[in-house]
Amino acid sequence: MTTASHQRTRPALRHDPAALQQARRDAGFTQTQLAHLAGVSQPYLSMLESGVCTPSEALLGTLAAFCGVPADSLRV
Question: How many structural domains is the chain composed of?
Fold first, then answer.
Protein backbone atom coordinates (compact mmCIF):
# COMPACT_ATOMS: atom_id res chain seq x y z
CA MET A 1 0.00 0.00 0.00
CA THR A 2 1.39 3.38 -1.00
CA THR A 3 0.64 6.43 1.05
CA ALA A 4 1.10 10.02 0.01
CA SER A 5 4.23 10.29 2.14
CA HIS A 6 5.86 7.46 0.17
CA GLN A 7 5.00 8.66 -3.31
CA ARG A 8 7.76 10.11 -5.39
CA THR A 9 7.46 13.79 -5.97
CA ARG A 10 8.54 15.29 -9.22
CA PRO A 11 11.36 17.78 -8.84
CA ALA A 12 10.46 21.35 -9.60
CA LEU A 13 11.15 22.43 -13.14
CA ARG A 14 14.15 24.73 -13.27
CA HIS A 15 14.21 27.18 -16.11
CA ASP A 16 16.77 29.77 -17.16
CA PRO A 17 15.04 33.16 -16.96
CA ALA A 18 17.76 34.91 -18.98
CA ALA A 19 17.56 32.27 -21.73
CA LEU A 20 13.79 32.71 -21.89
CA GLN A 21 14.13 36.47 -22.22
CA GLN A 22 16.84 36.14 -24.88
CA ALA A 23 14.81 33.59 -26.86
CA ARG A 24 11.81 35.93 -26.82
CA ARG A 25 13.89 38.88 -27.98
CA ASP A 26 15.66 36.82 -30.67
CA ALA A 27 12.24 35.72 -31.95
CA GLY A 28 11.21 39.37 -32.21
CA PHE A 29 8.41 39.30 -29.67
CA THR A 30 7.53 41.78 -26.97
CA GLN A 31 6.45 40.32 -23.65
CA THR A 32 2.88 41.28 -24.48
CA GLN A 33 2.97 39.50 -27.84
CA LEU A 34 4.48 36.26 -26.53
CA ALA A 35 2.23 36.25 -23.48
CA HIS A 36 -0.83 36.57 -25.71
CA LEU A 37 0.33 33.72 -27.97
CA ALA A 38 1.07 31.48 -24.97
CA GLY A 39 -2.19 32.30 -23.20
CA VAL A 40 -0.67 33.95 -20.14
CA SER A 41 -0.61 37.53 -18.91
CA GLN A 42 2.27 39.87 -19.64
CA PRO A 43 2.94 40.38 -15.91
CA TYR A 44 3.24 36.60 -15.48
CA LEU A 45 5.67 36.33 -18.40
CA SER A 46 7.68 39.14 -16.83
CA MET A 47 7.82 37.15 -13.57
CA LEU A 48 9.03 34.09 -15.50
CA GLU A 49 11.75 36.14 -17.15
CA SER A 50 12.85 37.60 -13.83
CA GLY A 51 12.85 34.19 -12.10
CA VAL A 52 10.11 35.07 -9.62
CA CYS A 53 7.84 32.29 -10.94
CA THR A 54 8.53 28.88 -12.48
CA PRO A 55 6.58 27.72 -15.55
CA SER A 56 4.93 24.35 -15.91
CA GLU A 57 6.57 21.88 -18.26
CA ALA A 58 3.76 22.45 -20.75
CA LEU A 59 4.09 26.24 -20.65
CA LEU A 60 7.86 26.08 -21.05
CA GLY A 61 7.34 23.91 -24.13
CA THR A 62 4.79 26.34 -25.53
CA LEU A 63 7.05 29.35 -24.99
CA ALA A 64 9.99 27.51 -26.55
CA ALA A 65 7.92 26.51 -29.58
CA PHE A 66 6.75 30.07 -30.23
CA CYS A 67 10.33 31.32 -29.88
CA GLY A 68 11.61 28.61 -32.22
CA VAL A 69 14.02 27.04 -29.74
CA PRO A 70 14.18 23.61 -28.08
CA ALA A 71 12.60 23.56 -24.63
CA ASP A 72 15.83 22.14 -23.24
CA SER A 73 17.58 25.39 -24.14
CA LEU A 74 15.35 27.15 -21.60
CA ARG A 75 16.13 24.75 -18.73
CA VAL A 76 18.94 24.98 -16.20
Answer: 1
CATH number at residue 19: 1.10.260.40
Sign of the dihedral defined by the CA atoms of residues 46, 72, 57, 30, in that order: positive
State residue 6's pLDDT score: 47
Cβ proximity of 14 and 54 under 8 Å:
yes
Distance between CA 34 and CA 41 in Å, rounded?
9
Cα–Cα dist 62/6, whole Å: 32
Quick check: is 4 in a domain? Answer: no
The domain in which residue 48 lies consists of: 14-68
pLDDT along the chain (76 residues), means of 10: 50 88 98 98 98 96 98 96
d(CA 46, CA 31): 7
Q: How many residues does the chain have?
A: 76
